Amino acid sequence: MIEKPDDKRKLEYAMKKTTMILTKAISIIVLALVLFAPLKAADAITILSWNISFPFEDTKEFSQDSESFLGVALEYRAFFHPNISIGAYAGWHVFNGDTTRTIHVETEGDNAYKADITGKQFRYINSFPIMLNLHYYIGSSRGAQAYIGLGAGTMIIEERVELGVVAAKHTRWHIALAPELGFKIPLGYNLSGLASVKYHYAFPAKRITGEKYPHSYLSINIGFAWDQNFFY
């Protein structure tokens, strides 16, 4: 909807949105923990990573951003075979930029509005991937491993355009896939270092412009993985 946000409303909106997304993400992780609880502690790992993302095509065109260092992800993987894991993944990636190019926006709801916005705008994309995933590992679990994986689920995409005190926003759930290629290196004390490349693709759905387009971006992920024995 088109709105004139003051600082208090912006803060309330941000807190409400963050709480909603984190609740959904935590629910997915908790569900994975419950489903895979029968596995031994050493057969599961938790991953926390920092993500550097590079938007493509329509995502780059809308956000006017070439790269983003604003990304974080939490993941849980359970091994039902020495070289195969299944798990859950949740992330938060932000793209933002500014432009003076005219954009047509269409909002929804009781105060639906259509407008052409011209002038210096600040544009934002908040992407929240929430997926189940499957990974295959090459090499011994006691040493360095390469792995390939695929995530499937949803990406919640929020697009926002701000011009002065006026803002237009649009949020949509997309069906999404995320293939991944990475490496896992033991560091000792039940802790491992990880590095991977993940391609996020959200299938076309209606966007703030009123048209249907996909979202896509590539993330370089650097993080740590630990199993439950890390805390004992």
Please give a structural write-up.
Helix content is 16%, strand content 61%. With 232 residues, it is an alpha+beta fold. Strands 2-3-4-7-8-9-10-11 form an 8-stranded antiparallel barrel. A two-stranded antiparallel ribbon has the order 5-6. It has a single domain (2-231), classed as Porin (Beta Barrel), CATH 2.40.160.20. The chain is built from 2 helices and 11 strands, in the order E-H-E-H-E-E-E-E-E-E-E-E-E. It has helices at 7-35, 57-63; strands at 2-3, 44-55, 71-81, 84-99, 103-106, 114-117, 121-138, 145-163, 166-188, 191-206, 212-227. The longest helix has 29 residues, at 7-35. The radius of gyration is 19 Å and the shape is elongated.
Task: Give a quick summary of the entry.
This protein has 232 residues and is α+β, with helices and mostly antiparallel strands. It contains two helices and eleven strands, in the order βαβαβββββββββ.
Order of helices and strands: EHEHEEEEEEEEE
- Widest sheet, order of strands: 2-3-4-7-8-9-10-11
What Rg do the Cα atoms give? 19 Å
CATH C-level: Mainly Beta
How much of the sequence is in beta strands?
over 45%
How many strands, what sense, and barrel or not for the largest sheet? Answer: 8 strands, antiparallel, barrel
**Overall pLDDT score:** 82
What is the CATH topology assignment?
Answer: Porin
